[in-house]
Amino acid sequence: MSLQYSYPRYLEAKRSVDDRALNHGVLQSVRDSLATRGAAPLRVLEIGGGTGSMVRRLAAWDVLKNADYTLVDRDEESLAALPERAPEGFALRPIHSDITQFLETVDEHFDLVIAHAVLDLIDLEEFLPLLWSRCADGARYWFTINFDGESVFMPQRPQDAAIWQAYHASMNRRPGSCHAGRKLFGQLPGSGARIDVAGSSDWVVHANDGAYQQDEAYFLHHIVYTIDNELRRTPPVESSVFARWIVERHEQIDRGEMVYIAHQLDFAGSCR
After folding, report:
1. Total Cβ atoms within 10 A of residue 137
2. Number of domains the chain contains
3. Fewer CB within 10 A of the terminal residue: the chain, N end or C end?
4. Which residues of the chain have pLDDT under 50?
5. What pLDDT score does 84 carry?
């Protein structure tokens, strides 16, 4: 199968995966905390907002109804894929910027900060205090899909352990951590925030009768493509074995045979 890989398409393809994965107990805590707010528009900042899947989800699920919504992302291609019209009741402001640069220069404060599937790419020890400095009194945070270092492809193969170990290790060579999920239990209180509720938000993707939901086959192909791109120059197993592993995983997706599980955590609480 020959695919043209696109990061905006990947973000859209994982919307249904995220919808299932998001921890609804954590989400309900956010919903309850916002219910006591007045009628004024909520000032929301989303970090790494991509193609706007979260703002559309919040509107569709009636979590937010009236918001001045600032969406910051450094990927211009993803921002270009934002819907032309914001959901009803939302004033959507997309900003193309590195989030640290944005926070260092913005002169406003936010009532809710959201980070979805992005904090494992950020140095949280430095970032969180800066983020809290841009939070209004009584502000809330909602941090979702924080990867926590466990991945599984099924059917399993003898090479899996070495490949996953190398792939997870590659995350630690960049800012952030492959264990961002569990580290947040220490880093959030350590930065002055309060954790009100936390829970698992695992990705679980499988086919029914040989077919995946919506565009989730593409989502899986993109995951395998990302592993290939990251490890092909220095594969953790013999090069031909790694190449065959990649081909086999793509073939399993095409046949609707592959299952993917990734362990993640969601958090909600007060910023300070």
Report:
1. 9
2. 1
3. N
4. none
5. 86
Q: How far apart are the first and last CA of the chain?
A: 50
Instruction: Look at residues 117, 23, 13 and name the one whose alpha carbon lies nearest to residue 73.
Output: 117
Angle between helices 180-190 and 124-132 (to 10 degrees): 50
Question: Residue 1 falls within a domain, yes or no?
Answer: no
Q: Token pair of 107, please?
A: 């002169």
* DSSP state letter for 121: G
Q: Which residues contact 251 (CB under 8 A, 6 or more apart)?
A: none
CA angle 196, 37, 146 (to 5 degrees): 35
CATH number at residue 235: 3.40.50.150
- CA-wise closest residue to 127 among 180, 67, 88: 180
pLDDT tens digits, 30-70: 999 998 887 789 999 999 999 999 999 999 999 998 999 99
Q: What is the pLDDT of residue 1?
A: 53
Dist CA 119 CA 32 (whole Å): 24
The residue written with tokens 């698992």 in the block is 200
Residue 87 covered by a domain: yes
Three-state SS at 42: strand
Residue 99, sorted as left (phi over 0), alpha (psi -120 to 50) or beta, turns out to be alpha
Residue 2 maps to a domain: no
Q: Domain residues for 212?
A: 7-270
Query: Which pLDDT score, from 0 to 100, does residue 211 have?
Result: 97
**Residue 18 falls within a domain, yes or no?**
yes
Quote the crossing angle between the two packed helices 160-172 and 216-231, to the nearest 10°: 80
Task: Give how far Cα 31 sits from Cα of 59, 86, 153, 268, Å.
Answer: 12, 20, 34, 10
